[in-house]
Amino acid sequence: MVEETTKDGTTWYVCEKCGMMFDDREEASQHEVNCDAEDPTYLQ
Ligand SMILES: [Zn+2]
Fold first, then answer.
1. d(C-alpha 41, C-alpha 13), whole Å
2. Neighbours of ion ligand 1 (CB under 5 A)
3. What is the pLDDT of residue 24?
4. Each residue's pLDDT tens digit in the chain (44 positions)?
5. What is the CA radius of gyration of the chain?
6. pTM
7. How many helices (H) and strands (E) does the chain have?
8. Three-state DSSP class for residue 10
């Protein structure tokens, strides 16, 4: 699940798996689908 965070008035979307930040929500969710940094406890 992509996390939202606000920094300096800008909303960022953070990959919950690896912590990578995106300024585009679509990009973030697309990344997360293909993210390799899998944490077994977060598997759906
Ligand atoms: Zn990631």
1. 21
2. 15, 17-18, 20, 35
3. 96
4. 899 999 999 999 999 989 999 999 999 999 999 998 866 665 55
5. 10
6. 0.74
7. 1, 3
8. strand
Handedness of CA 5, 35, 37, 20 (dihedral sign): negative
Q: Under DSSP, is residue 32 helix (H, G, I), strand (E, B) or coil?
A: helix
Alpha-carbon distance values, 26 to 10, 32, 36, 40 (Å):
16, 10, 18, 24
Residue 35 CB neighbour total at 10 angstroms:
15
CA of 9 to the centre of ligand 1 (A): 23
Query: Ligand 1 mean position to 11 CA, how many Å?
Result: 17
